[in-house]
């Protein structure tokens, strides 16, 4: 029997099993996670995405960790929806610095009808550059999910954030069920799911287990699982949250890797606060995706050049993305998208 055949994709994890993984001696947990990782992936390969904030701040939601919520005074400068042309420029720069996926985030509760033509044009334009596309725009109904899928959106990000039990301590303006419904609409429309959470918000180990159980017991595992470490932003209710033990963060990555063997586990927000040794340990635990770029929406992120140096020192290479269009077709598609963005019809003048 091949090693590959020994990896089981399960959707029936129990709390006791997951807590037992969290409580393993650290070396044993790392060994299990690394074994799963090596069976399912090239252990020296990392996928690289770039995240661009296409609409910043003034969000009506009350997520306690988020500087973009209009409810907290964090000094964040609000920005209107970015023009399509500018988004395409940013995507070109991301591609030039080695990203294979371009993620576009808007601080909305959910997109409004008037927003949809702009965001679908962005998807078409970015895709025409030969990049994979991902968006995070808040809650989506079935029609909106279908519209994005029809425009060619590859991934939709919508995080569960934490366990259902701890969720009410973090967000009150949308329910856990609302989030699950958006994820169901994304799946139904045929897009890939990017869904994870944040650790270090004062949750218990059982909440980290609870979050991973929600993700791993979905009918299909999310293709991408971002594990964020809380970035404490002055002005948010989480500004003075106690530090998480870094080993608990690494354990969360390792348990995610074991429970969702074929998903890309992304080392996401909070990387700026991690030293290189901790990042290397996260890769050993099974993280195989990161964001490049100086900012993650609104919080700092290590510079791409520093990341490249770390990759070289660790012997890590970047995952490539197959481009199926020939260069001429691509050029024509970019031209078309830019033309469309110059058209008055696509001039965007709304505050949010
Ligand atoms: S996390 Fe998203 S939904 Fe929550 S306040 Fe921030 S931008 Fe709004």
UniProtKB/TrEMBL annotation:
<keyword id="KW-0949">S-adenosyl-L-methionine</keyword>
<dbReference type="GO" id="GO:0009102">
    <property type="term" value="P:biotin biosynthetic process"/>
</dbReference>
<comment type="similarity">
    <text>Belongs to the radical SAM superfamily. Biotin synthase family.</text>
</comment>
<feature type="binding site">
    <location>
        <position position="266"/>
    </location>
    <ligand>
        <name>[2Fe-2S] cluster</name>
    </ligand>
</feature>
<keyword id="KW-0004">4Fe-4S</keyword>
<dbReference type="GO" id="GO:0004076">
    <property type="term" value="F:biotin synthase activity"/>
</dbReference>
<keyword id="KW-0479">Metal-binding</keyword>
<feature type="binding site">
    <location>
        <position position="66"/>
    </location>
    <ligand>
        <name>[4Fe-4S] cluster</name>
    </ligand>
</feature>
<dbReference type="InterPro" id="IPR013785">
    <property type="entry name" value="Aldolase_TIM"/>
</dbReference>
<dbReference type="InterPro" id="IPR006638">
    <property type="entry name" value="Elp3/MiaA/NifB-like_rSAM"/>
</dbReference>
<dbReference type="GO" id="GO:0051537">
    <property type="term" value="F:2 iron, 2 sulfur cluster binding"/>
</dbReference>
<protein>
    <recommendedName>
        <fullName>Biotin synthase</fullName>
        <ecNumber>2.8.1.6</ecNumber>
    </recommendedName>
</protein>
<feature type="binding site">
    <location>
        <position position="59"/>
    </location>
    <ligand>
        <name>[4Fe-4S] cluster</name>
    </ligand>
</feature>
<feature type="binding site">
    <location>
        <position position="103"/>
    </location>
    <ligand>
        <name>[2Fe-2S] cluster</name>
    </ligand>
</feature>
<keyword id="KW-0808">Transferase</keyword>
<feature type="binding site">
    <location>
        <position position="63"/>
    </location>
    <ligand>
        <name>[4Fe-4S] cluster</name>
    </ligand>
</feature>
<dbReference type="InterPro" id="IPR010722">
    <property type="entry name" value="BATS_dom"/>
</dbReference>
<keyword id="KW-0093">Biotin biosynthesis</keyword>
<dbReference type="Pfam" id="PF06968">
    <property type="entry name" value="BATS"/>
</dbReference>
<dbReference type="Pfam" id="PF04055">
    <property type="entry name" value="Radical_SAM"/>
</dbReference>
<comment type="function">
    <text>Catalyzes the conversion of dethiobiotin (DTB) to biotin by the insertion of a sulfur atom into dethiobiotin via a radical-based mechanism.</text>
</comment>
<dbReference type="GO" id="GO:0051539">
    <property type="term" value="F:4 iron, 4 sulfur cluster binding"/>
</dbReference>
<dbReference type="GO" id="GO:0005506">
    <property type="term" value="F:iron ion binding"/>
</dbReference>
<comment type="subunit">
    <text>Homodimer.</text>
</comment>
<comment type="pathway">
    <text>Cofactor biosynthesis; biotin biosynthesis; biotin from 7,8-diaminononanoate: step 2/2.</text>
</comment>
<feature type="binding site">
    <location>
        <position position="194"/>
    </location>
    <ligand>
        <name>[2Fe-2S] cluster</name>
    </ligand>
</feature>
<keyword id="KW-0411">Iron-sulfur</keyword>
<feature type="binding site">
    <location>
        <position position="134"/>
    </location>
    <ligand>
        <name>[2Fe-2S] cluster</name>
    </ligand>
</feature>
<keyword id="KW-0001">2Fe-2S</keyword>
<dbReference type="InterPro" id="IPR002684">
    <property type="entry name" value="Biotin_synth/BioAB"/>
</dbReference>
<feature type="domain" description="Radical SAM core">
    <location>
        <begin position="44"/>
        <end position="271"/>
    </location>
</feature>
<dbReference type="InterPro" id="IPR007197">
    <property type="entry name" value="rSAM"/>
</dbReference>
<dbReference type="InterPro" id="IPR024177">
    <property type="entry name" value="Biotin_synthase"/>
</dbReference>
<dbReference type="InterPro" id="IPR058240">
    <property type="entry name" value="rSAM_sf"/>
</dbReference>
<keyword id="KW-0408">Iron</keyword>
């Amino acid at each position: 029997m091949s090693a590959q055949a020994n990896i089981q994709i399960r959707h029936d994890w129990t709390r006791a099993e997951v807590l037992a993984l969290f409580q393993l001696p650290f070396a044993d947990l790392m060994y299990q996670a690394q074994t799963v990782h090596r069976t399912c992936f090239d252990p020296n390969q990392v996928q690289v995405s770039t995240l661009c904030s296409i609409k910043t701040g003034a969000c009506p939601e009350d997520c306690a960790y988020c500087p973009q919520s209009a409810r907290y005074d964090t000094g964040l400068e609000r920005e209107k929806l970015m023009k399509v042309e500018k988004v395409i420029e940013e995507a070109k720069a991301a591609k030039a610095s080695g990203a294979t996926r371009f993620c576009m985030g808007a601080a909305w509760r959910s997109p409004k009808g008037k927003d949809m033509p702009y965001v679908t044009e962005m998807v078409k334009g970015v895709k025409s550059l030969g990049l994979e596309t991902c968006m995070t725009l808040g809650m989506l109904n079935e029609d909106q999910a279908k519209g994005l899928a029809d425009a060619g959106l590859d991934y939709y990000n919508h995080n569960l954030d934490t366990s259902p039990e701890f969720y009410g301590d973090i967000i009150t303006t949308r329910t856990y069920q609302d989030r699950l419904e958006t994820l169901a609409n994304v799946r139904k429309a045929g897009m890939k799911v990017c869904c994870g959470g944040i650790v270090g918000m004062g949750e218990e180990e059982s909440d980290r287990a609870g979050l991973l159980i929600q993700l791993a017991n979905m009918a299909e595992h999310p293709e991408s699982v971002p594990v964020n470490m809380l970035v404490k932003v002055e002005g948010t209710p989480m500004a003075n949250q106690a530090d998480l033990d870094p080993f608990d963060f690494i354990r969360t990555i390792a348990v995610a890797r074991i429970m969702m063997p074929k998903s890309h586990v992304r080392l996401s927000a909070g990387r700026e606060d991690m030293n290189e040794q901790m990042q290397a340990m996260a890769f050993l635990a099974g993280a195989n995706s990161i964001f490049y770029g100086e900012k993650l929406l609104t919080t700092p992120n290590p510079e791409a050049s520093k990341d490249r140096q770390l990759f070289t020192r660790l012997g890590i290479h970047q995952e490539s993305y197959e481009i199926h269009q020939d260069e001429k077709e691509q050029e024509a598609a970019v031209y078309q998208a830019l033309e469309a963005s110059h058209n008055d019809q696509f001039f965007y003048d709304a505050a949010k």
